[in-house]
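Why this split exists: single-chain examples teach little about how molecules sit against one another. For that reason, every record in the complexes split bundles all components of an assembly together and asks for one structure covering all of them. Below is a record exactly as it appears in the raw files.
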Amino acid sequence: MALIRLDKLRHSYQAKPTRDADWAVKNIDLEWSDGGAYALLGPSGCGKSTLLNLISGLLRPTEGRIRFGERDVTALEPGERNIAQVFQFPVVYDTMSVFDNLAFPLRNRGVPEAQIKTRVDEIAAMLELTPTLHTRAAGLTADGKQKISLGRGLVRADVAAILFDEPLTVIDPHLKWQLRSKLKELHQRVGLTMIYVTHDQTEALTFANQVVVMLDGQVVQAGTPVELFERPRHTFVGHFIGSPGMNLLPCELSGGVPRFGGIAIETAAPVRSGVAAQRLEIGVRPEFVRFADSGVPVQVERVTDSGRFRIVYARHQEHAIKLLVGEGGEVPAERGHLKFDPRHTQVYADGWIAT
Amino acid sequence: MSTKTLNHKAWWLVAPVVALVAFNAVIPLMAVVNYSVQETFGNNQFFFEGVKWFDAVLHSQRFRDALGRQLLFTAIILAIELPLGVAIALAMPRKGIGLSLCLVLMAMPLLIPWNVVGAMWNIFALPDIGLLGHGLNALGFDYNYTRQPGSAWFTLIAMDVWHWTSLVVLLAYAGLSAIPDAYYQAARIDGASRWAIFRHIQLPKMKRVLTIAVLLRFMDSFMIYTEAVVLTGGGPGNATTLLSIDLVKIALGQFDLGPAAAMSLIYFLIILLLSWLYYTVMTKDDES
């Protein structure tokens, strides 16, 4: 059963959107199933936080519907949806103790005090907040406060999904990793749907089973981390995910075969017929490029060492090509030839995959 | 830790400030201290009297009455201006032209010279020709602030509320607008009621500015002189003779320099003590 279904969702912050650029979220259709761990990944201003706020109900969509299961929640207030949200900056109610903070959503819903106590104790134990339960929340560190924000979501028995809006932004680096593992662990333990907004690919790829990449108010690709890595649907996904990003090389088609600098390049699948584009590019990740005896002739410009492998910056005419060479791999001193792994070489027409 | 260079010449750098403060604060204050322990019969001859004037002031019924009126006045205006100011700040629009209009409107009473405020209300409240005074009488209230102590108090308080609530509004508004949106969003998700949002988010976040607002309003209202003296002159009788009005009567009306100086110092110490007490209590648990 699909838990969250977005149906032709559009949102604009303007009263009367006219131009395409007025839309913060442009026509999104998505389905998220129950109990999954999802990430919304994209650069700042791509609309990912807007999308999150639409799902939690903090924003009303200009057009389209949102369904949780069979229930249409488009017109419901956030408090009436079975959803919780954790924000970028930790929100705690300063004057309350940690216990009262966690109890707050339940008290607002009129849950009996005895039941609240059991539930809060349980959640506090899960989040390792028990020792500080009766101290003032204002005195906690940022990661402690963020745990409280998360706890206020977990404590509600009706919550089926928790949304995270870049929750680790203000957390110290060494605690980020801990808190992220905690989230992962909680996800497995309580089986809630979790949707995690971030612009950090590492966070997205380590947290989620399914990553939705957004650009400019649109979903460019939704898939597993492996799919995003091996077969980006759009050149944006190619260079946004992976470090260093995908090589994109201009090419032309002759007889359905892509040619780069006059050299025919083998691809995973044949280029779709009838592709007529302004801009044709070959996309291949540095991981899938290697030195060979023949192929694309290049000049080696620079090599940097990043531990387990070296990044080689090569050049064919004016086109830069990056490749990774593992430990023990040979790097020619000046000139060499490059081969692209055909299984991981794609052609993009105006940015979109065409193979 | 770095070791600091010890150079006593640096004291010269603060000398100009010390001189300035000495001229505008320390010297006048010490002059008052000087008067407060001496007696004079004119001719510029002074005799040391010790704490006689302090003793006299503290035991005088007149001083106690004025202090009582002063405390009552301050308590009443704080009880009105604070909740009213917060309520107006909460009701103000958050953005757009409405906000600018409100801010200008709110700032206006604060920009009017104090004696003008007094004169305005003096005329406004006149029972025969003033809009307020005439209006109240036309509505059937027996209102005459120059004759009835109750009416005089009502007018005095109304004037202060009109003049100074804006200050509370502006401070409270500043406190409110510093609350990040995420707090309101979290509260909506937590299902908080309007009252719970006020009680657990807005009020705690406004605490610091409201502390300052109370402190400012306490000090200013405790020292109120100009508006009150222009409006009622302390009357009818002594009904609205607040501490400062009484002080001026003693110092400049009767020219009793010794008692006036002693009273000034007591007056000053009361304000200092209450302000310090209040501020210490309010900021006690703010350490973190």
